Amino acid sequence: MTVSPMKIPPAWTQPIVRRQEVDLRLVPLGFLGLIVIGALLLRLPWTHRAGQSIGWLDAFFLSTSATCVTGLTTVNVAGTFNRFGQGVLLGLIQLGGLGIFTAGILLVLLSGQRLSLADEHVIRATVGKIRRVRPLDVFLYGCVFILLFELAGTVALFLQINAAAPQQPVWQNLWDAAFHAVSAFCNAGLSTYPDNLEHWRYRPGILAVVSVLIIAGGIGLMTLINLRYYYFWRRDPRRRGYLTLQAKLSLFMAAILLLAGTVVTWIFERRHTLAGATLTEQITWSFFHSATCRTAGFNVVDPGAMNPPTLLFTMLLMFIGGAPGSMAGGIKTVTFAVLVRTAWSALRRRENIEVFGRRISPQVAGRAVMMVLIASGVLMAGVGLLMFTEQQHPAAETPEHWLAVVFEAVSAFGTVGLSAGVTPLLTAPGKLIIILLMFAGRIIPLMLSVYLARPSYPWHVRAPSEEIGLG
Length: 471
Hints:
This protein is mostly helical and 471 residues long. The chain has 18 helices and two strands. The protein has one domain. Helices cover 59% and strands 1% of the residues. A two-stranded antiparallel ribbon has the order 1-2. Helix 9 packs parallel to helix 13. The longest helix is centred in the N-terminal third of the chain and has 30 residues.
């Protein structure tokens, strides 16, 4: 007896089984919900000092600034909020500073779902093939690193602040140390001092601790986790571990941008805002400005008094930001590095894009170009709207005129927090635009990085190619 072969239906007639994945819309909705709750709390009268109050717009502005770890303020935090109000801001900074990766892992754990293949691909692409890591392990490692850095920063700052200000109560010094440790590691830039960190500009130890916290928070939790498994002192490569390309790029770009920012700031400001200081103080303040202008927003020198070339280079650093998966904003250092290497390969007429002996796929280069174009478009739209709303208003009458307004917009989108003194002078529509820029600067790069890291679905129909001219 013969058995007829089984007929297999064509692929287009087979049902499509879609994997259950985490809804990425939960991330912006979560940030928005946190902003609303924070604004409601900051509006309450018992969060303010005696005789102080703020309106709804300022409450939403501050809540957005803290949640998006930006640091721009329309009011004096130290003079407006009491200890409870500052605690609300600190909580918003901590929750907002966890980053998209830990937020995404947390959403998966809270929903009780199992990671899809796409989500596992994101983890493997970020952590590297060092060892098998569960999502819970990644989230716990991230929380442990945050806790350790903030606790160590609090202790180090408390010892120095308590020695520098023994006349203040111990609990006050402890609170200032904890607030600035969390604000620095989360790259927020909010301070409990009226003059920001100009209060401690002659204390290099305090500035050094804050700088280390800012840099650690700006290189990314995934880089820190990768370094946890990299034993560089071992000679055996099998026991030494593996440093991923993303970690190498994050560390390399952080060092290059720190050095470039320090040199440029010192060259243009040594006879201006840094005049009268010793050479050691000039280098220290220039390095601190370079460390904080890409991510945090603390300042020891008034940015509004800086020369235009310094402000222009600072805007470039703010637009680049920190590493992927970090507390920082901007287009991210790795994106900028890929963009530069892509341009360099095109200039040398090479098909392959190589970095540190590794080849980068054209898809990754295309994603980098797309992220920069989207970020530039959003920023340009925000600047254009500000030019319309702030025309013939106090914000446009600052010494540097529109340069200060553009500086404010870049600082908001890069979630940096440095200000040229324009923020308190903005009109109500101008404040709303800055709020939208802070929210977009925090959400758009994070959402794009996770969405684009998911596996693509290949399209097998290709159109014929044809050469075109450029330039």
